[in-house]
Design a protein that fits this description.
The complex is a heterodimer of chains A (627) and B (447). By secondary structure, chain A is an alpha+beta fold. Chain A folds into 3 domains: 8-448, 3-Layer(bba) Sandwich (FAD/NAD(P)-binding domain); 470-551, Arc Repressor Mutant, subunit A; 564-626, GidA associated domain, C-terminal subdomain (DNA polymerase, domain 1). Chain A has 21 helices and 22 strands. Chain B folds into 3 domains: 5-119, Probable tRNA modification gtpase trme, domain 1 (Gyrase A, domain 2), CATH 3.30.1360.120; 152-211 and 382-442, Four Helix Bundle (Hemerythrin (Met), subunit A); 217-372, Rossmann fold. In chain B, strand 1 (5-9) and strand 2 form a beta hairpin. Chain B is flat. Classes of the chains: A alpha+beta (627), B alpha/beta (447). At the A-B interface, helix 18 and helix 21 of A face helix 4, helix 7, helix 14 and helix 15 of B.
């Protein structure tokens, strides 16, 4: 008889589940990862890429905490670019086209070879609780598995329907089976279920596309890796292509709108505004004469080409007409039709900042079930839920990242504070402190925390420490003054910068628009043999010195509110002065800090004043009681 | 936390026709039921005046009481108002008796309004407007304050914020959605978009000078040699005799300030000691103060005595101050009006006979008040608002410099948000989803 006792059970092996399970096992807890199908582990059901604006940031952060996504993405990369290269270092965003097959295989291998981690194919149908705490799970084969914590990462598999035209299929993405029992159980546990919708475009046979028509987009060499553990930079071995729809395409779509399940009312789930279907784009932005799309290879071992930008749920014959209306696709053959998918998600405001359900100890949620969209958003929650399941088992304080710690902090704070009424995608515009939350300093922001909870390995930590030491040393060299001698004058002239009469600091030299740390170091050898990533970081710290300082002050100002804890035992209904809406929301969300309370929609600055006054009075009372 | 109950006399201290004591808070109703014989009617007929008797151990009086149950009251709490026969001692005695009850205390200044804000009955600008209305001393000030209470300022600020939101959305789209088939905003376009925003903030801020004049009144200093008729002019402007007028030079030793209203604006006229060389210590001190007053005034009236030849002391006032030169005593029989070499005066009057006083008032008005601004719907009279506007303009200047220096768009975005926050602090707003909503409604995005 197999051992059926675990510390942690992770339900679902998508991007959230993989990170959660690895975190649990690596920190040292006996972990079981269950999935409906072992062949869907680490599956990329939509676009074959990882990263991009804000999402790339999340991948760097996952890596800095000791997660896996960045490394697997590096290993599966076939084409990379750095988005926003001209727009400032804060928003540089690495985006990698990844080989789907390879990504799945590599992630599966990592999981299979992880100590403390078992994998089991089954459908979890019930979460077992005892006295308000998790005590196990039950699967569809009526097996009971004992455990102390559960991380639910069901992605888009809960009661999902795939919709093409008026054909509705009860299944998960790509025809994988869906989980049909767990929703009822979650409802019984008190969770509010919402219905969300998303979609994916068609996949086209590479041999049937005339690529000469489309603009080729090649990968770029010499970019950093997502993961500190990746030893060699991936090679660019594939290209993407850019094309456009035309008036003819739009006419076809308009003519067939009555066949769209979206407009017929067949689809009831709420779709994302930032990732609209092609029919949605044409209705909402009627004056646009064309819409752009990208052609991306799904994997090196297949002819399937992903058509990014044209997701739809129109019937198959309309899909074919749409495709054939586009120059270069006259003879194109669809291998997989585009579809919309509806699925169950929970109301994320029912979770605490550690991603644990407020009503049941040890029950954690991560990924698309929390209302997000995207692999990276899922992975980010997965690692946090996994870590916090461990902290729960260790009875230690949870790991809660603030909005100034990282995009992960922004993501989770938004989810638990505001909830979401559409699939939530990370965007840099959601972050207040963009200049601090860069890809290049994700390690400086998070690795110490990841190490403290036991997830970051010793070797990763040592590498990190070494880098930080060099950066600290380098920062001291900023103060060094270069005398206004012949050499400096020649250097300034050569770079068309005004000359100086007195000495000038290294910092002020790097800040000059036509100078950077590399030019300066080539000439004056100020910084010792630092690796590129250290020089890069120092360059940003110098060039953006003033702006970083402005932002640092903003963070400081907010910190007082963020650090003011709102005790869980506050009885908001007894707090007079609060407006009705504020009182109800505070009662429901139970914010952990004054800062979080202020971000709840419906809680006004006046309500925050009342809370502040209350806390002061309470502190005085407690002090006098204790003293 | 239960908020406590507060009470205060809401009418001015002194003997008047009626005086009102206001109670606000959870115990208001309970307390009134112990002292007012018709209290049972209050609850049956909220918001209606009920006649009854207020009774204490050693005295009683007829009173009209009204009960506003929460949240439909000024403060949003249970409010009771007791209308008593005016009379300082009576009112004070009732208040003292009420304060003997448990769980009630004297309100701090402005506490009723503060509670109204805390209970969401009004926003900060509206509360500030109410305080200004209470303290208003002129028609224009009253109008400026009431426009603020009616949300006029919030509307103006919101309109500017909308423009800024649109701009930030354009910038954020460029950052969050590279690789899209849309036209991204250029540095030059940001600069152009900033122009109307800057103009609107500047225009709003421009009203603050007039706003301050309206709030504080316009200070007009009367200057001139002794016995030029300054005190007569003061009396003429006020319309009643305030200053002692004699023909002894140097009668006015100290500065004297009184105000009158003209075209809705309050003018504070400061009569100063005549400026001359004097050996009298008291007079000299008065002269020094006069000089200070003159330097700080919004306008100086340099009064010239038409019956005396001009001397150096007549025109010894600092030329940088805003001033008008007024020739007085033009209808005196011994006037030298025609012979005066100095013809460069703005108006000639007779203070004693009140000749051309209205014309002088108009001139004073024209010289100090920008009539166009005065007629603006919104005047910035509050220092906090002024500072927020100044701060946002400062940041706009910073953004312009950053644009010229070709700083990257992530930095510009930081400054734009800073500017948004500075401006929004006037009305206590935060960005909360507004920028994202704008992005999604304006742009066709998506992968």
């Amino acid at each position: 008889m197999e051992n059926r006792n675990y510390d942690i059970v992770v339900v679902g092996a998508g991007h959230a589940g993989c990170e959660a399970a690895l975190a649990g096992a690596r920190i040292g807890f006996k972990t079981l990862l269950t999935t409906l199908n072992l062949d869907s582990i680490g599956f990329l059901p939509c676009n074959p890429s990882i990263g991009g604006t804000a999402k790339g940031h999340l991948v760097f952060e996952i890596d800095a905490l000791g997660g896996e996504m960045g490394h697997v993405a590096d290993m599966a990369t076939i084409h990379r670019r750095m988005l926003n290269e001209t727009k400032g270092p804060a928003v540089h965003s690495l985006r990698a086209q990844t080989d789907k097959v390879r990504y799945h295989e590599y992630m599966k291998q990592v999981l299979e070879n992880q100590d403390n981690l078992d994998i089991l194919q089954c459908e979890i149908t019930e979460i077992l609780t005892k006295n308000g705490s998790v005590c196990g799970v039950k699967n569809h084969l009526e097996e009971t598995i004992n455990c102390k914590a559960v991380v639910v990462c069901t992605g888009v598999y809960l009661d999902s329907n795939i919709i093409i035209g008026n054909v509705i299929t009860k299944c998960g993405p790509n025809g994988f089976m869906s989980a049909t029992h767990l929703t009822k159980n979650l409802q019984a546990l008190g969770l509010k279920i919402m219905r969300f919708k998303t979609g994916t475009p068609m996949r086209i046979d590479k041999r049937s596309i005339n690529f000469d028509i489309f603009e080729e987009q090649r990968g770029v060499d010499g970019l950093p890796n997502f993961s500190i553990r990746t030893k060699h930079a991936p090679k660019n071995i594939a290209s993407c292509y850019i094309g456009y729809t035309n008036q003819n395409t739009h006419d076809i779509i308009r003519k067939n709108l009555d066949k769209s399940p979206l407009y017929q009312g067949i689809i009831k789930g709420i779709g994302p505004r930032y990732c609209p279907s092609i029919e949605d784009k044409i209705v909402r932005f009627a004056d646009k004469s064309r819409h752009q799309f990208f052609l991306e290879p799904e994997a090196m071992s297949t002819n399937e080409i992903y058509m990014q930008g044209v997701s739809t749920s129109l019937p198959v014959e309309v899909q074919r007409d749409i495709l054939h209306s586009i120059n270069g696709f006259e003879n194109a053959k669809i291998m997989r039709y585009a579809y919309a998918i509806e699925y169950d998600a929970i109301d994320s405001t029912q979770l605490k900042a550690n991603l644990e359900y407020k009503e049941i100890n040890g029950l954690f949620f991560a990924g698309q079930i929390n209302g997000t969209s995207g692999y990276e958003e899922a992975g980010a929650q997965g690692i946090i839920a996994g870590i916090n399941a461990c902290q729960y088992l260790k009875q230690e304080a949870p790991l809660i990242l603030s909005r100034s710690d990282g995009y992960i902090g922004v993501l989770i704070d938004d989810l638990i504070t505001k909830g979401t009424n559409e699939p939530y995608r990370m965007m840099t515009a959601r972050a207040e402190y963009r200049l601090h939350l860069r890809q290049d300093n994700a390690d400086a922001r998070l690795t110490e925390k990841g190490y403290k909870v036991g997830l970051v390995s010793k070797s990763q930590y040592q590498k990190f420490k070494k880098k930080q030491k060099m950066i600290e040393e380098g920062k001291k060299l900023f103060e060094k003054i270069l005398p206004p001698n012949e050499k400096l004058i020649v250097f300034l002239n050569k770079n068309s910068e005004p000359i100086v009469k007195t000495g000038i600091s290294v910092l002020n030299l790097i800040k000059r628009p036509n100078i950077d740390i590399y030019k300066l170091n080539n000439e004056f050898k100020i910084f010792p043999e630092y690796p590129e990533e250290v020089l890069h970081e120092l360059n940003i710290l110098a060039k953006y010195h003033g702006y970083l300082e402005i932002e640092r002050q903003q963070i400081e100002r907010q910190k007082e509110l963020e650090n003011t804890v709102l005790p869980e035992d506050i009885d908001y209904s007894a707090l007079t002065g609060l407006r009705l809406e504020a009182r109800q929301k505070l009662k429901r969300i139970l914010p952990h800090s004054l800062g979080q309370a202020g971000r709840i929609s419906g809680v006004s600055p006046a309500d925050i004043n009342i809370l502040t006054i209350y806390l002061k009075k309470r502190n005085i009372k407690e002090k006098s009681k204790n003293g | 936390m239960k908020s406590d109950t507060i009470c205060a006399i809401s009418t001015p201290i002194g003997v008047g026709g009626v005086s009102i004591i206001r109670l606000s808070g959870p115990c208001s109703k309970d307390i009134i039921s112990r002292i007012f014989d018709k209290a049972f009617l209050l609850e049956q007929k909220p918001r209606e005046l009920i006649l009854g008797e207020i009774k204490f151990n050693d005295f009683c009086d007829q009173a009209l009481c009204v009960y506003f149950p929460n949240p439909n009251s000024f403060t949003g709490e249970d409010v009771v108002e007791i209308n008593l026969h005016g009379g300082y001692y009576l009112t004070k005695a009732v208040l003292d008796e009420i304060l003997k009850f448990k769980d009630i205390r004297l309100a701090e200044p402005g506490e009723f309004s503060k509670r109204a804000v805390l209970n969401g009955k009004m926003d900060i600008t509206q509360a500030e407007g109410i305080i200004d209305i209470i303290n208003a001393t002129s028609r224009a000030e009253l109008r400026a304050s009431s426009n603020i209470i009616n949300g006029g300022l919030s509307n103006r600020v919101n309109a500017i914020l909308d423009d800024l939101t649109n701009l930030i959305a354009e910038v954020d789209v460029a950052i969050d959605y590279p690789d899209q088939d849309i036209e991204y905003i250029s540095h030059n376009q940001i600069l152009q978009a900033l122009e109307p925003i800057q103009t609107n903030i500047t225009n709003l801020l421009k009203t603050s000078a007039t706003g301050a004049l309206i709030k504080n009144g316009v200070t007009v200093a009367l200057a001139g040699v002794p016995n030029a008729g300054k005190s007569s002019l003061l009396n003429a402007l006020l319309g009643y005799d305030r200053a002692i007028v004699t023909d002894v030079a140097g009668t006015t030793r100290d500065t004297l300030s009184e105000s009158y209203e003209y075209n809705g604006v309050r003018f504070n006229i400061v009569d100063t000691a005549g400026i001359r060389n004097s050996d009298d210590i008291v007079e000299r001190a008065g002269i020094e103060r006069a000089q200070n007053t003159v330097n700080e005034a919004d306008l100086v009236i340099q009064l010239i005595d038409a019956t005396r030849p001009l001397d150096a002391q007549d025109i010894n006032i600092n030329s940088t101050v805003n001033k008008i030169i007024v020739l007085n005593k033009i209808d005196a029989p011994n006037n030298l009006y025609k012979d005066l070499k100095y013809k460069n005066f703005d108006i000639s009057i007779s203070a004693i006979n009140k000749t051309k006083i209205d014309e002088l008032k108009q001139l004073i008005f024209d010289k100090t008040i920008n009539n166009q601004i005065l007629n603006e719907q919104i005047l910035i009279t509050n220092t906090r608002h002024k500072q927020s506007l100044e701060k946002s303009l400062e940041i706009i200047e910073q953004i312009k410099q950053a644009l010229v220096a070709n700083h990257s768009i992530d930095c510009l975005a930081l400054l734009l948000r800073d500017c948004w926050l500075a401006l929004a602090s006037i009305i206590g707003e935060n960005t909360d989803g507004k920028i994202l909503d704008t992005i999604f409604s304006k742009f066709c995005l998506g992968k």
